[in-house]
Amino acid sequence: MTTDPRGGGPVPDRDWDRAVGLVSSADEVALACHISPDADALGSMLAVGMALRAGGKRVTASFGERRFRVPRLLCFLPGQDLLVEPGAYPASPELMMTFDVPIADRLGVLSGNADKARELIVVDHHASNTGFGTLNLVDPGAAATAVLAEDLLDRLGLPIDREIATCLYAGLVTDTGSFKHSSTTPEAHAMAARLLATGLNPEEIARELWDRSPFAYLKVLGAVLDRVVLEPAAGRGLVWTFVTRADRASYGLPYDEVEGIIDVVRRTDEADVAVVLKEDDDGAWQVSTRSKGEVDVARVCAALGGGGHAKAAGFTSHLPVEQTMARFRALL
Predict the structure, then answer these.
(1) Secondary-structure percent of the chain, ordered helix, strand, coil, rounded to 5
(2) How far is CA 191 from CA 25, 228, 285, in A?
(3) Which of 181, 209, 237 is the last residue of a domain?
């Protein structure tokens, strides 16, 4: 049984046993992660995909964005030859598995495929997970979905080589904030040690994830920080700003390159909560939120149609910036 060090809700052994039975008996497995994938989502999916393929399974993997494109920061992850565009994904999979997806809507255009799947195994660590699968391997106490992915591979008896370990490590190290977050348990460090023993290069992974950006990112960051706002909210500080399509277009910066701005804004000493609104290529606002612990931003974002973790969550808004922030403030 996967243990939950915070007392949240480990996955029962009977569910693990059923998952192992379903995967072992399947000839073909369709894998999916959430739209705008991060390292935990894409890394967990690719790790399981590579291991299943090495074990003789036919594997298809994707995420449900019409503008299908792996974020530049994650292009270093192995196993991307498994990926197909959503249009080439099985319409009615016999067995489908999702990774790091708390609600079906986060599958994007693949949500319809999930509805038609004969069996749908949900692998996730979000407390806000709605249990939309026919089998849900959900443990909010796990430091990352990668923890559950490693557990699944172990129970399937599938070996983890350096490439698989690289994908799992990327998920673990990002969702623990480089092992700074409270989710960093002794078990998380033990998992990191197992993965490092495969010979992966943590320096190269860290460089790809955090120490690279195009020059255009600096120009956009300067414009975004110039409009940053610090204000009181619910007795605590709130710091927020926004990134428009025009900001990015001025310097030819793709949408996925602005993900890291929230990590700059959240450093503000005077604010417990940080918010960055990012206008995507379709004109919707993708809102990232962070908390230093006093505020459960997952509850706020869930009320706005999103979700996530207590200290890191998000939602999508189709309202203008000021109206979006007014709704957010009211919920704080």
Answers:
(1) 45, 20, 40
(2) 28, 38, 36
(3) 209
CATH number at residue 306: 3.10.310.30
pLDDT averaged per 10 residues, the chain (length 332):
45 97 98 95 98 98 93 96 98 98 94 98 94 97 96 98 98 94 89 98 95 95 97 84 97 93 95 97 95 91 89 94 96 90
Domain that includes residue 253, residue range: 215-331
- Dihedral angle computed from the Cα positions of residues 229, 262, 219 and 34, in that order, rounded to the nearest 10 degrees: -130
Evaluated on CA atoms 248, 249, 251, 253, the torsion sign reads positive
- The runs of H, that is alpha helices, within 252-320 are 261-265, 297-303
Whether 224 is covered by a domain: the verdict is yes
What DSSP designation does 86 have? G
Contacts of 202 (CB under 8 A, 6+ apart): 169, 173, 196
**C-alpha–C-alpha distance, residues 301 and 285, integer Å:** 13
- Chain-centre distance of CA 44, in angstroms? 9
> For residues 310 and 182, what is the distance between their CA atoms, to the nearest angstrom?
11
Residue 187 falls inside a structural domain: yes
Distance of alpha carbon 277 from alpha carbon 188, whole angstroms: 31
Domain boundary among 209, 230, 257: 209
User: Chain-centre distance of CA 269, in angstroms?
Assistant: 26
- Report how far apart, in Å, the C-alpha atoms of 154 and of each of 48, 99, 225, 249, 259 are: 11, 17, 45, 45, 32
Report the distance separating Cα 207 and Cα 224, nearest Å. 24
Contacts of residue 261, Cβ cutoff 8 Å, sequence gap at least 6? 221, 224, 241, 243, 276, 278
Residue 256 belongs to a domain:
yes
Evaluate whether 23 touches 94 at the Cβ level (below 8 Å): no
Helix (H) or strand (E) holding 331: helix 321-331
Within a domain: 3: no
